[in-house]
Structure formats: C-alpha cells, structure tokens
Write a structure and sequence with these properties.
With 178 residues, the protein is α+β, with helices and mostly antiparallel strands. It is built from 4 helices and 7 strands.
Length: 178
C-alpha cells in the first residue's frame, strides 16, 4: 500500500526480519515482535507496518468485526443514517483496529494522525477486501489514548465500559468523502 506521503506500508510476512520497535507499551511491542505473525497464521488479524533503515516507525493490525445491539446502548443512533430498508438487526459490518503502535521516536509528531488517515482510507475508500460501515477499536482507557481516538473522529459505543481497562469506540466510514 502506498500513500501520498511516499510511505511504503507493507503487510507483515513471516519471512520479514522485524527491525527494532518500541512504542513505550510492552504489550503492543510484544504483540508486534512476537504475536502478529501468529495472528495472521490463524486468520485473526493482518498486520501492516512502516519502517526506515533503522527501525519500525509504526504498525497496525486489522480484523473483521461488527457492531450489534448487544455491543452498544447507542445502536439506534448508529443506524439512524442508514435507510430503514437497509438497517440490519444482526449488526453492521466493521473493521477492528486490533493493535496500533507508533515508535516513541516519532510520537507527538503527527504521525499517529497520518496512520489513522491511512487506515480510514485503506478500509473506507481503497477497496478493502470486504465492505465495512465502521472502524472499531478497544481503546486503552487512559486520557492519551481516548483523546487520540476522539481527535480522529471516534465515538464511544457505550458508556457502560467507562471504568474498564479498554473503551469500545467506533468511527463511521460514511464520514469519508468518496
């Protein structure tokens, strides 16, 4: 996948030697370095990354998902923009951002917003292999993570998880210009 900014985002392959990566979160670091390939082998998520000659700059993993009435207290609000005949009782298709990490060396430089724009465009505009109405994420429930997703247009699926370790959030891909 290539972007306007000349980034060369690649799909992680088993044969790839991962360059050093540290985003400041041990769980995310370990996932990228040790588990991402296993998730791909078991068809749980696909991981994409960008690197330079010295290090991995960022990575993100995507998986199929859906939003159902059981997931949210805001289901009617979410479906409001969909014509009645097309509203789905079983849920709306989504793509989950399973993991997303940005190297500490480039954090607070705006690269996180660039990565999110890449994901939105990849899923919402550039013929992602399946149809999806939403992006979803289980965001770490800390101020920095929540603010990041809110700045990038995500809303909470429910208020019932406000005291949990993660918060379910969604982004309506219809917000993108086609």
């Amino acid at each position: 996948m290539e972007t306007k900014n000349t980034l060369q985002i690649r799909r992680l392959k088993e044969s790839h030697t991962i360059k050093p990566f540290d985003c400041g979160d041990d769980d995310l670091n370990e996932f990228f370095i040790k588990d991402a390939i296993l998730y791909q082998k078991h068809r749980l998520a696909i991981t994409y990354f960008e690197e330079n000659e010295n290090q991995t700059i960022f990575f993100f993993s995507l998986a199929n998902d859906r939003i159902t009435t059981a997931d949210t207290t805001k289901y009617n609000k979410i479906g409001r923009n969909i014509p009645n005949a097309k509203r789905r009782r079983g849920g709306y298709p989504a793509v989950k951002i399973g993991r997303l990490g940005v190297s500490k060396n480039v954090q607070s430089s705006g690269i996180g917003t660039v990565v999110m724009d890449i994901i939105k465009n990849f899923v919402g505009l550039n013929n992602y292999p399946t149809g999806a109405k939403f992006l979803t994420v289980d965001a770490y429930n800390n101020e920095r993570s929540i603010k990041y997703y809110e700045r990038n247009g995500f809303d909470f699926l429910t208020d019932e998880d406000s005291e949990q370790e993660t918060r379910a959030m969604y982004y309506d891909l219809a917000k993108l210009e086609v």
